[in-house]
Write a structure and sequence with these properties.
The protein is α/β, with parallel strands linked by helices. The chain contains six helices and six strands, in the order ααβαβαββββαα. The chain has helices at about 5-10, 30-45, 50-55, 70-80, 135-140, 150-155, and strands spanning about 45, 60-65, 85, 90, 100, 110.
């Protein structure tokens, strides 16, 4: 069983019907979503180790920075989430940010590239600015290290 099948098999269908046409979904408008999402991610408690992330997630949102795609793969494996990427975009990532629901609490662990910090988001945040960008440019804009030519050939 591969990673995708493993994760999909854990999804349970909710038994409560929702009348979506009666729901207010305005919070999903791209400009509003990007702003509120940035605020939540950048205000999460910044930690430097997996152990700290696992400790603090019981009390607040937590942010753990990954510095390369190989570092992300290690974190993904350790938190039991999908580790693959395509063209520099990590699976389930939004602007390079991946959410992990760890434990049973209401808080989120955010795995983020180095560009995420407190303060205002980059002007391109949430604007699908990466659609026609080469992989090395994308990785650099996220603040991630670029693999060596040898690693690039083997893993990309």
């Amino acid at each position: 069983q591969n990673d995708i099948e493993h994760n999909l098999n854990q999804i349970l269908l909710d038994r409560v019907g929702v009348q979506w046409e009666k729901e207010d979904l305005s919070y999903l408008k791209p400009e509003w979503f990007a702003e509120s999402y940035w605020r939540r991610v950048s205000n999460a408690k910044l930690v430097s180790t997996e152990a700290d992330a696992k400790f603090y997630i019981a009390h607040s949102d937590v942010r753990l920075v990954y510095n390369s795609l190989s570092h992300f793969e290690t974190l993904a494996f350790n938190f039991d989430i999908m580790a693959d990427e395509k063209a520099g975009i990590v699976r389930t990532g939004y602007e390079g940010i991946v959410e992990v629901r760890y434990g049973k609490g209401e808080f989120i662990l955010f795995l983020t590239p180095p560009y995420v910090s407190e303060g205002s988001p980059p002007s391109t945040f949430g604007k699908k600015a990466w659609t026609n960008v080469e992989k090395t440019t994308l990785l650099q804009s996220f603040g991630l290290s670029i693999p060596s030519e040898e690693d690039w050939q083997m893993n990309w």
